[in-house]
Amino acid sequence: xxxxxxxxxxxxxxxxxxxxxxxxxxxxxxxxxxxxxxxxxxxxxxxxxxxxxxxxxxxxxxxxxxxxxxxxxxxxxxxxxxxxxxxxxxxxxxxxxxxxxxxxxxxxxxxxxxxxxxxxxxxxxxxxxxxxxxxxxxxxxxxxxxxxxxxxxxxxxxxxxxxxxxxxxxxxxxxxxxxxxxxxxxxxxxxxxxxxxxxxxxxxxxxxxxxxxxxxxxxxxxxxxxxxxxxxxxxxxxxxxxxxxxxxxxxxxxxxxxxxxxxxxxxxxxxxxxxxxxxxxxxxxxxxxxxxxxxxxxxxxxxxxxxxxxxxxxxxxxxxxxxxx
Length: 325
Known about the structure:
325 residues, alpha/beta, 14 helices, 11 strands, 13% strand
């Protein structure tokens, strides 16, 4: 059973609280219908038993106060509403709890501008993050130590998840459902809730969704080449030649277009593919490692853990039901 704690902050968006509760509860029903045990124990948690939102138009009752939550597997931080600085100040007392749960092993997911509250914990410092496009400049000013990924739908790093603006948080929620259950259940949920999933993509929920939303055609050519040659050891010189650019110019334009260095991008594409293999196949660590073009086990393990927060073995055991994790 996975404990899902949906934080009910002050100054929050009601739908961003109700939607994850509805989704995970519906997935439990899907599992029950297919003869499986419900997987999610979903609870609303907060600093008070009753929290008024939308300027007092609605009241939300929490099942547990934060200090009563002994252990949880996933903390969801919904979107905030109104002035972000005011909203963060109103929820300062929740910050130590979020950090405590993360340090105890929980995963933490922020929806849309809930990223502001997540960033205020300091957990995102030195890491990448998604948020609503309309708030990116404000976010960068408030949290200069966090790298905002332009146009990204879902960002994942070290057990921290964030989503892009507005309804794109559904993609993050489906991503989490897929990780905890399987693709079949996630697709069923996407159909039930009428959420579009681009299954033509190898990594439909990957943090790289949207990183080709830039006008630099030469860099798009390089990105396509990387995506199609995951098994190869790709060099910067090779990509620069492909695009008919000098190495320095190529690296500068690549970083400007994608917000990643060339090597960061290559590693993230490869690790995303490796994650998919671990989630959906019985391949062992070395098989997956070679499949994505790594030959050094120590290097593969190090890069994988840097990006996901878990070793390849831990990731496979956590997310692949076929290996009994």
